[in-house]
Task: inverse folding
């Protein structure tokens, strides 16, 4: 029994170990992608939580640049996506002002991030459907090698808008359905932690339904991920999100079915 957003919930999943890892139940797993503005706080907390539960997961940011708080609101620390590692950011900020960046949580956040993957990636640069062969050391990479996912979870409405617009601009070359869900999370460390727990709960609910429909449809057909083979699962998603929203009322959610 745990408190989630002030609501008592009971989890049917295995309890996490001391390091946050959950026992891997095996079997079918949906593939997830988490997205925030800079691929630093909210998306990375969710990426870590999902990988600890052994879900295939990747993560991105939708901003033009990676922006982290600096000594003042007019002096942010700015980095380029795909070019600067979390480890390099950690070392640079530690050298600049270890007291400030420890106090505001940035060093702790970057220390976590560098244990998850190399560095922040930009959604708009993702080559969907192209094998991600150079990400084998990322947490959650197993199962994402093919460069596609089943569910994209954004952490802010503007990120959801950016993902939807980008998918429309790409023109659906794979003709593959993908659920795009926004879970609105305030961009601070405490809310990111709560949001990460909520996203994991949502992933568990979605995956349970997907496993049921996969058994009904047949593994071979379901795994083809066509509109026809996934239709029964796709139809259940709005109801699943509605039930989840009752458990997490302080994490407003928006959903649409889009296409890769």
Result:
């Amino acid at each position: 029994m745990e408190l989630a957003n002030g609501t008592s919930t009971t989890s049917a999943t295995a309890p996490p170990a001391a390091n946050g890892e959950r026992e891997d139940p095996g079997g079918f797993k949906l593939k997830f992608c988490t997205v925030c503005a800079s691929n630093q706080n909210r998306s990375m907390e969710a990426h870590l939580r999902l990988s600890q539960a052994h879900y295939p997961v990747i993560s991105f940011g939708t901003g033009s640049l990676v922006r982290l708080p600096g000594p003042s609101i007019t002096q942010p620390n700015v980095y380029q996506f795909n070019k600067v590692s979390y480890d390099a950011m950690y070392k640079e900020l530690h050298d600049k002002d270890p007291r400030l960046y420890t106090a505001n949580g940035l060093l702790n956040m970057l220390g976590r991030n560098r244990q998850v993957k190399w560095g922040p990636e930009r959604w708009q640069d993702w080559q969907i459907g192209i094998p991600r062969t150079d990400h084998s050391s990322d947490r959650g990479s197993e199962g994402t090698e093919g460069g596609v996912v089943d569910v994209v979870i954004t952490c802010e409405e503007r990120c959801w808008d950016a993902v939807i617009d980008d998918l429309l601009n790409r023109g659906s070359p794979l003709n593959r359905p993908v659920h795009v869900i926004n879970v609105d999370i305030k961009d601070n460390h405490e809310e990111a932690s709560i949001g990460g727990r909520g996203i994991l709960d949502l992933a568990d609910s979605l995956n349970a339904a997907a496993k049921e429909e996969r058994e009904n449809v047949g593994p071979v057909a379901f795994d083809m991920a066509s509109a026809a083979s996934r239709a029964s699962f796709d139809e259940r998603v709005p109801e699943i999100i509605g039930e989840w929203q009752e458990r997490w009322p302080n994490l407003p959610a928006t959903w649409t079915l889009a296409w890769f």
